[in-house]
Amino acid sequence: MLSKKNEQYIRSLSLKKFRQKYNNFIIEGDKMVSELLVQVPNQIERIFALPSWTNQYDQKLKKTGVSVQEINERELKKISSLKTPNQALAIVQQWEPDFQSTQLEGGLSLYLDGIQNPGNMGTILRTADWFGIDWVVCSPDSVDHFSPKVVQATMGALFSVKTVRRKVEDLTLKKLNLPIYGAILKGENLFRTTLKQEGLIVIGNEGQGIRSDILPFVDHPISIPAHHKVRGTESLNAAIATAIICATFRGK
Questions:
Q1: How far apart are CA 230 and CA 62, in angstroms?
Q2: Model's pTM, two decimal places?
Q3: How many distinct structural domains can be found in the chain?
Q4: 3-state DSSP assignment of residue 108
Q5: Strand 135-138 and strand 44-49: pairing?
Q6: Among 211, 202, 188, residue whose Cα is nearest residue 110
Q7: Could you report the per-residue pLDDT of 34-66, keeping only the tens digit for each?
Q8: What φ, ψ does residue 22 adopt, rounded to 5°?
Q9: CB atoms within 10 A of CB 52
Q10: Residues 150 and 73 grouped into a single domain
Q11: Is 45 in contact with 13 (CB distance < 8 Å)?
């Protein structure tokens, strides 16, 4: 049976302060947990799953040596943050890849300045994975990329995209051989701009855009032009804008 202590511990990880305290987070669902077994099994502290799930992945579980506790549907529902719990839940150690600013050179990367919406963060990481963007650097005040809503929205991209948290001033951008693009409302038309296949793309906060102390680092302000008939909408959703920008860069 699932102990009360384990139940309380797992539920506490929905809060950032406890994720930081224990350096753990939660991954849920058949697809996500099974992918976790393949991608980063050494990060798994424990899996709680229905017997049908453990039977299905018996060989993978034996191969990795991951600790598993079988629970019933009622117990899974108690510890799940999903409206409809899906077979398995894993407690996972947080990780951060080794990072030096120079690793941004030679490729296309993202800097997220104060992204707050979990859905946006998760979708941006998923977009980065789709377009082969290896590094996503988040400002320290961006939403926690290990929060349950972000993790679910990434649909597994969390395992592939290297995500770190850094202040923009710590990146020594002016010393890097790298063009810096910034998504702003009055930038140059994205579709008429000469884009390089390497660079750092800065995406600003959903409501405020790129902060004034970051704008001086931007060499190439870019903007997605609105159709001339647009009415009422002042800006695009941050995740959608990121997807359009990434697609345009990769399409050049």
A1: 57
A2: 0.92
A3: 2
A4: strand
A5: unpaired
A6: 202
A7: 999 999 999 999 999 999 999 999 999 999 999
A8: -95, -10
A9: 11
A10: no
A11: no
